[in-house]
Design a protein that fits this description.
Distance between the termini of chain A: 27 Å
Helix content of chain A: over 70%
CATH superfamily of the largest domain in chain B: Class I glutamine amidotransferase (GATase) domain
Largest sheet of chain A: none
Shape of chain B: globular
Number of domains of chain A: 1
Structural class of chain A: mainly alpha
Oligomer: heterodimer
Strand order of the largest sheet of chain B: 7-6-8-9-20-19-16
Strand content of chain A: under 5%
Order of helices and strands of chain A: HHHHHHHHHHEH
Number of strands of chain A: 1
Strand content of chain B: 15-25%
CATH class of the largest domain in chain B: Alpha Beta
Radius of gyration of chain A: 19 Å
Number of domains of chain B: 3
Number of helices of chain B: 15
CATH topology of the largest domain in chain B: Rossmann fold
Largest interface: A-B, 63 and 57 residues
Number of helices of chain A: 11
CATH architecture of the largest domain in chain B: 3-Layer(aba) Sandwich
Amino acid sequence: MRNMWIIARRELGSYFTSPIAYIVVAALIALTSNFFSLILFFSREATLSYLFSNLITIMLFVAPILTMRLLAEEQRSGTIELLLTSPINDWEVVWGKWLASFILWLFILLLTLIYPFILKVYGSPDWGPIWSGYLGLMLMGGALLALGVFTSSLTQNQIVAAVLGVVITLGLWIVGGGSQLLSGPLASFLNYLALSNHISDFSQGVIDIKHIIYLLSVIFGSLYIATRVVEMRRWR
Amino acid sequence: MNREKERWLTFLPSIGLILLALALIARWQSLGSDAVAYALAGLGVAVFLLYIVLNWHAVLAAFSGRQVRYGGNALVIVVAVLAILVMINFLANRHDKTFDLTANKQYTLSDETVKILENLKEPVKVLAFFLPNDSRQGDARQMLQRYAAHSKYFSYQIVDAEKDRAKVMQYKVTSPGVLVFVRGERRQETYGTDEQALTSTLLKVIRNKPKIVYFITGHGERNPDQYTDVGYSSIKTAMNNDFFKVKKLDLATITTTVPSDANVLVLAAPQKPLAKREVKILFDYLNKGGKLMILSDNGLDFSAMKPELKAWGVYPRADLVIDPRSSFFGDPTTPLISKYHYSTVTKDMEGIRTIFPGADSLEIVSPAPKGKTVTSLFETSSNSWGETNWKNAKSVHFDAGKDTKGPLSLAASVTAMTGKGRLVLFADSDFVSNGLLNRVQGTGNATLFMNALNWLAEDEQLISIPPKPPASHPIKPLTAGQRSLIYYVTVVFLPLLILIIGLYVWWERR
């Protein structure tokens, strides 16, 4: 567990010293802010529920960019060998790297707290949906980052990892649409599998245990497979 | 540990997986009872546990990952871990628990609805017919999900009204957006997706006897059995479709009180004033918790019941509404309404037009009489007025002092705080006549009438379910300066700050 923290701290350090992370975060915030002001000016409602879905849609593309380097780069430069032969468990490496990206995500969410603050100044928002929305964002972001860590484990090429990440997250996002062509258990299975069906309740103010379980499962499952993949590299 | 045993052990997770898959299939296909599915699932989990116990070292190794694995069961374990995740999700989905954090509990069903659902004894299925791009589909799905969570007898299906023509024909769907409640042979429809609409439709479909509406006769009232233009046979059909039984009642023939099976009385445009005794019977019924709908019209004399109506807070002025601004195809004597006050009667009318040819206007007694809640349902435009001298076509213009200036109320609902009596008064009776309903397409007149009737005939259980207006938390109007401030702080300043910090860190490290 301590090793996980060491890895996370190291990765976080490289996030905050590389200009790429600042550019990505600044672009993300600028885009989200743009949505925030437009939604606020047009709806004249002190709510963030529309914004949350926009933010998570942006995150579908940003998450794989934030995670693409994490494992792919270690494999390209060969430093993964050092990590794997050090007295650190494989899962500690994978979880530590995910944790670093997750802390960065929490940091981004911290910046977005300016929106509810503005709503508070100009109106009286219903706080329940805002906090539940943030819980949903945290978990959904964590899941997207975990999927990104998984795709980063598959390849040595960062770009491949990022593209693969976008393909997988987008695929999981829209797979529920397939349920319209089908009916019965398969349709409900696809509906349940789709990431997109596990966020709107949060942003509307409903905390549903099944969404939490689902998102935690995506995080755990992705990182578990990523661990196995990293480990498999050692056999070759 | 010998090799033979190990070989057998690797099969265990697969067996467990198959058992779990069978459990899911049994559950989904409703083969046998739930107990079968649970037994299979339990067995599957037990096999997994057995494997874990017997093969403790290998499992531990697979999870910690440092040790070299035993044989080739790494993939099996990956699959097993994923299967366990699927199982956990399946259970979470079945035993769902939600917490509603909205201030007015927007997404929580009321105790009354929950009670009705828990008392369901027969299957009720809801078919929601929607076009694929209908935004209400999501609301309907969420609501129906909430209902289904409370009873195993309640199920629902979202039907694509465009593709699934067979179902559209089978359930005689005339327009998409309808929810058809089915219990055995009984059908009941609603276009609403809120709790009031769904629960009242549910109550209707599980009811075995229709509610009874009495149309009062004997003064030249509108006749529900008459098929000519002035008749009410079309709206009678609508009432029958909504599980109401329409009967007639001559107040002069009853000696004491109205029949006890009456759910609603309708007094539809009496051409002659009611006798004193009739008025007394009518309002005794209303004051004792009865439900009454009165349809007035231009030129009718309601003076015989003026004190009684005033005591209920609303009275027809016996004028003629002239609305030059909002009228039907430029006929100023046919006001057109498209905006409604929020009430149970009008909540699903938003954006739907209603027209009222030759209406008089309603006087809403202000302040409302003690113990009564009076709600004006909708009004004419502010350019309209109530013409008192309407018999003389030449003098039709606004006379200050004589005519009432708009906006004029055309319908009102009154609730007695004690005694449960309810009254709806419409300022027009042509709006649901055969002539209008059959000839003029695309009005919401019949819907409005049925909404009012349903509100009057509402079950006691429903009365405590308040209509939940969509939660609204408007912000103060923003000045141009405030808008710029918000925009520049969030879109420009904040990202710029991040970039500057990044630049600084990068510079320092060089």
